[in-house]
Amino acid sequence: LTPLQNLFNPPSFRKLLKTSNLKLENKLKNRQFKQQSSAKKQRKEQRKLRQAITDVSHKTLKPLERYKKKPGEEEEDEEEFLESLPVDMMDDDDLEQIRAMAKKASFLTRDISSCTPVHAKKRKSEQPVKKYEKMPRKMQQEEEKELIHLLPIKDKSGLIPQSMEKPVVPEAEEEEEPVDQDELNQEEEPEIVPLLTPQEQLELRAQKLTEKKLHMASLSSAVLADPHVNIKKLKELRAMLMETDPCVAVTVRKLVMVSLLEVFKDIVPSYRIRPLTEEEKAAKVKKETLQLREFEEGLVSQYKFYLEDLEQTVKDWKQKKQKRSQAVSLQSYKGLAEVAIRCICDLLVALPHFNFHNNIVVMVVPLMRDSVSEMCCGAVSKLLKQDKLGQASLAVVKVISGMVKGRNYNVKPEVLNCLLCLRIKEVEMRKDTEDTAPKKKFMSFKEKRTNLSRMQRKWKKAEEKLQKELLEAEASESKDKKIKLHTETLNIVFLIYFRILKKAQKSILLPSVLEGLARFAHLINLEFFDDLLSVLYGLITSGDLTYRESLHCILTSFHILSGQGDVLNIDPLKFYNHLYKTLLTLHAGGRNEDTAIVLQCLDVMLTKRRKQVTLQRAQGFLKRLSTLSLHLLPDSSVGILAANRALMHTFPKCDILLDNEMQGSGVYLPELDVPEYCNPQNTALWELHLLKRHYHPMVRKFAAHLMKGAPSEGSGALSMELSRRTPVQLFEDYSVKDMSFNPPVEHFTIGDAFLDSELKTLINAALQNESELTSLDFTSQQTQQETRMTAN
C-alpha cells in the first residue's frame, strides 16, 4: 500500500519558526514551573523536618498510658499469670513475692525518662529532677566550610550551579620544642626598654623623622608624576595625618598637611567636578574616559577627607579636646591648628573654582575674629582682589553678613575692612534707565511676511543669524551674569553698612562702615541719598566721632553728591565749613595717615566740584592749607602743596594771594570758621617764603614753584613726572613711615644755609665772648633780691 498523500499544503519556514519559538517558550515555562514547585516541596519538607527536630529536642518524653482494668479482667490476668508459672515447684512465699513485683512495675509501664531505679523507695527529702537534665544532649556540629561559587553548567534541564570548598592553606606547623619553665617566666615578665641618653633620643628622633620625610616625598612625587594612575597613594599619604608615634607625631602631621596642600594645588583641574548621573554611570565609555572618571572621583573624595581633617584639627584646638591616643599633647594643638588654618587659607585663595569652596569660606570667615584673624583677613582680602567672576565674593559677603548680625556687631573692624577689596565697578542699571535705552529686537515671522519681500526675508534671516553669533562671541551673557552677581553682592554690603548706622552708631565698626560707604557711594541707589546725608551730618555734629571718622563722613557725602547726586539740589555748605574748621587739628606727628583722606576730600570738594565752589571759598582753603603745611611732616607738606597747586590751576584768580596789595575792604580773619567770610583776598601766602627754606628738598621745590604762580611751562615749572602725580600719590611716594627721608636730606651747617652775614657776625662775637662770661650763681642773685625787698 502506498502511503497517503498529504492533502494540505506544507507549512512555511516562517510558520514553523513561529511554532517552534512558542514550543520552546512553553517548554521553558513548564520547566521553570516544575523547578519552582519542586523547590517549594523541598523547602516545605525541610521546614517540617526542622520543626520535628526542634520539637523532639525541647519536648520531654511522657510515659506510656496506663489503662485501668476492670476487676474481672484483673482476676483473669492473674489466673493466666499463675498458670504460666511453675507453681508446683515454688513455695508460697516466693509466689506472693512474684505477684507483688508484677503489680508494682513492669517495663512497659515504666517512665523511660526517669533515671531512678525501679524498686527504689521515694524519699520526701529528694529534690525533683531539673528540666535541663531531661533535655537530650546535642551532637557536636561540624564547622561550615566556606564555598566558592563557580560558573554554572548548562544542560538540557537548565542551569546547574557549581561550587567547591575553599582550600585551606595549611599553616606551617612549627615543631613543638620543649619549653623550659625559665623561658615561660621570662616571657611573662615585661620587656625592659633600655634608657637612652638625651643625645641618643635626639638621634633616634632625627632618624625616624628622616624615614617619614622620605616616605612622604616618595608618595608625593609618585602622585605628581602620574596623578591618574597613582591617585590611590593620596589615601596612604593622608593616613600619615594620624601619626601615633609621640616622638615625631606633631612634626609629621605638619609636614603631611603642607605636602597635601602642594599636591592638591598641582593636580586639581581648572574646573569643578560634578557627580555623575545614573544615565552616565550606566552608559558604556572608553577606557580613557573611565580612567578619568575614577581619577576625578578619587580626587574629590580625598580632597573632602583632607578638608575634614583640617577642620577637625582646628576644632580640637578651639575645644581643647584631648584625644585618646595621646600622641599629641594639648600644648601642641595650637601649632597644629595654625598650620591647618594656613593650609585652609591657601586653598581658599588658590582653588576658588574647585569643589567645596563654599565650605572653606564657612570655615575661614568665623576665624577672622580669633587670634589668627590677621592670617584669615589677609586671605579673604586677597581672594576678593583676584576674584573676577564674583561668585566667591558673593559667598564671602553672605557669610560675613550672617556673622556680623549673629554676633550683634561684636566683631573686629578688620572684618569689614576686607570688603574694601571688592572689585565692583559696575552694577545693574535701574529699571527706568533700562526702559529708555534702545533694545535690539528681532522681527517676528508675521512682521517679516507683511513688510518684507521673499528676498528681503532671506537676507534678514542671514543677518539675524550673524548677529546672534556675534553676541555669543562677545560673551554678553557672561557679562550680564557678572553684573547680576556684583549687584547682589553690593546690596548685601550696603545692608551690613546701613544696619550698623542704624543700630550700632557707637560701635568700633563705624570707621570701617564710613570708609566703605565712601568707597562704594557712587553705586548707592538714588532713593537713599537724602536720608543718608542727614544721618552723616548728624554723626558729624554729635561730637562722638574721631577726626578720622568725621573725615570719612565728609568724603562719603561728597562721593554721593559727585555721582548720581548731581541731579539733587543740595548745598553741602555745612560739610565745607566743618572741614575748614578741623583742618588745623590734623596730626603733625608720625601717625599722619589722615593726610591721605584730607587730600581726597579736597580733590572731591574743590577740584571736581569747581562749578559749585565760589572764589572766596577756594581762596580761604588755599590760605588755610598753606598755614597747615608749616607744621606737618615733609610727606604731608608735599601733598598739601600739591593740592594748592591743583587749586591754583583750577581757580586761576587765586594768584592774587601772591601779591602784597589788598583788594576790597576788611582784614583777614583766620579765626573765623567760614571760608567765605574770613576775607582771604586781603592776605598773602607769606608761608611760602618759610617753606622755601625747608630742610626737605621736595618741599623747597614745590614752595618755589608756587611762588612763581605754579607755571606749567618755563623755568619755574615742575618736571613732567612730578606734574602728573596726584597729591595722594606724592604723599605716598615721599612717605616717612620708615623714619627715613625720601630723598635723603643734605647735610648743612646753620651759617651756610639760612643765616645772613650780619647775623652771622653777631653770633660769632657772642661765641667768642662766651669764655669771658662768669658762671651764673642763682643763689647769690636770690639773696640780693631778698635784701632789696627788705630794704624797700
UniProtKB/TrEMBL annotation:
<feature type="region of interest" description="Disordered">
    <location>
        <begin position="27"/>
        <end position="89"/>
    </location>
</feature>
<feature type="compositionally biased region" description="Acidic residues">
    <location>
        <begin position="171"/>
        <end position="187"/>
    </location>
</feature>
<feature type="region of interest" description="Disordered">
    <location>
        <begin position="167"/>
        <end position="187"/>
    </location>
</feature>
<dbReference type="GO" id="GO:0006270">
    <property type="term" value="P:DNA replication initiation"/>
</dbReference>
<feature type="compositionally biased region" description="Acidic residues">
    <location>
        <begin position="73"/>
        <end position="82"/>
    </location>
</feature>
<feature type="coiled-coil region">
    <location>
        <begin position="445"/>
        <end position="481"/>
    </location>
</feature>
<feature type="domain" description="Nucleolar complex-associated protein 3 N-terminal">
    <location>
        <begin position="212"/>
        <end position="306"/>
    </location>
</feature>
<dbReference type="Pfam" id="PF07540">
    <property type="entry name" value="NOC3p"/>
</dbReference>
<dbReference type="GO" id="GO:0005730">
    <property type="term" value="C:nucleolus"/>
</dbReference>
<dbReference type="InterPro" id="IPR016903">
    <property type="entry name" value="Nucleolar_cplx-assoc_3"/>
</dbReference>
<protein>
    <recommendedName>
        <fullName>Nucleolar complex protein 3 homolog</fullName>
    </recommendedName>
</protein>
<dbReference type="GO" id="GO:0003682">
    <property type="term" value="F:chromatin binding"/>
</dbReference>
<keyword id="KW-0175">Coiled coil</keyword>
<feature type="compositionally biased region" description="Basic and acidic residues">
    <location>
        <begin position="56"/>
        <end position="72"/>
    </location>
</feature>
<keyword id="KW-0539">Nucleus</keyword>
<dbReference type="InterPro" id="IPR005612">
    <property type="entry name" value="CCAAT-binding_factor"/>
</dbReference>
<comment type="similarity">
    <text>Belongs to the CBF/MAK21 family.</text>
</comment>
<dbReference type="Pfam" id="PF03914">
    <property type="entry name" value="CBF"/>
</dbReference>
<feature type="domain" description="CCAAT-binding factor">
    <location>
        <begin position="550"/>
        <end position="703"/>
    </location>
</feature>
<feature type="compositionally biased region" description="Basic residues">
    <location>
        <begin position="40"/>
        <end position="50"/>
    </location>
</feature>
<dbReference type="InterPro" id="IPR011501">
    <property type="entry name" value="Noc3_N"/>
</dbReference>
